[in-house]
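Researcher: Next sequence.
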Amino acid sequence: MPLSRRLLAEFVGTLLLLATVVGSGTMGMDLSEGNRGVALLANAGATAGMLYVLIALLGPVSGAHLNPAVTLVFRARGALGNREALAYVIAQIIGALAGVVLAHLMFGLEIVQWGDHARTGASQWLSEGVATFGLVLTILLGLQRRPAAMPVLVAAYIFAAYWFTASTSFANPAVTIARSLTRTFAGIRPDDIPGFIAAQCVGAVLAMLLAKALAPEVVRNDPAG
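Model: Next structure:
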């Protein structure tokens, strides 16, 4: 598959993912008149549903990484070269930023706004490490055991992780960066980005090591199967 086509898939996929994350959180808060539990349920359900669609449709094109942590794991496992991995990460970050802007436009909000939702401290960092660990482990073991079920596996894991982690499972450096540009339900303060990304990287590395211990190496570019 030409790199340009794969990058377009990563850009569009991450754009739609972030539009869903920010848009569904905003809609949930609006419809529930500020009930955060209802907003979280809407956020988790919409995000999981969109992930299923994106992985099923874009997986055959680019692998539907939609996540720099996933891309870097596949680079470490030899599925991507340095140039490809860097291009994937750039496309994902730009797509994520565009997705936030799109959500703001759809809801008539200020296009760019610095996040003010405090997400810091040991419990938040541990949550992000656990969320990313579980996501990467799901992808790597899913490739080995149930490749055809990848859309369901990833969507189900993210839906669950929204609820069992204190951070609501960002589990994605591009998502983390982009969500610093919104003051909606989904936002995060820019100052809290480094701690989240560091925890996500640690979680991804630990998942890669455990997957290697549990199953033979799977060197592929396609977490969607």
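Model: Residues 44 and 160 are 8 Å apart (CA to CA). The first helix runs from residue 3 to 31.
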